[in-house]
Here is the input.
Amino acid sequence: MDSVKIIKKMVPIHCARGPNVCEKCKTLKLEGKKLCLIEVFLKGGNVARPITEIYVGCRRIVGEFDILKIFDDNESALKYSRNHKIDIQLD
Here is the structure.
């Protein structure tokens, strides 16, 4: 397993530079937290990515991630979670 997909409530960011440097990240930060489908990579790569902390079972994982999808509402995230058997982390 090289990566883990999870739905996480978070402020979406566009790149590793974050909202202090990147205008697109700054705009996303102003929109607030949303449920996002993310792919967390267990090993670092050659691409600069933001880092997050997730829990898989009882194990804490800190890894680089990509946002794959931003959900419009909680209902669509829950439906996606059920259909694809992906965990949701709200904290």
Remarks:
- The chain has one domain: 3-84.
- The chain has a mean pLDDT of 87.
- DSSP finds two helices and five strands in the chain.
- The two ends are 24 Å apart (CA to CA).
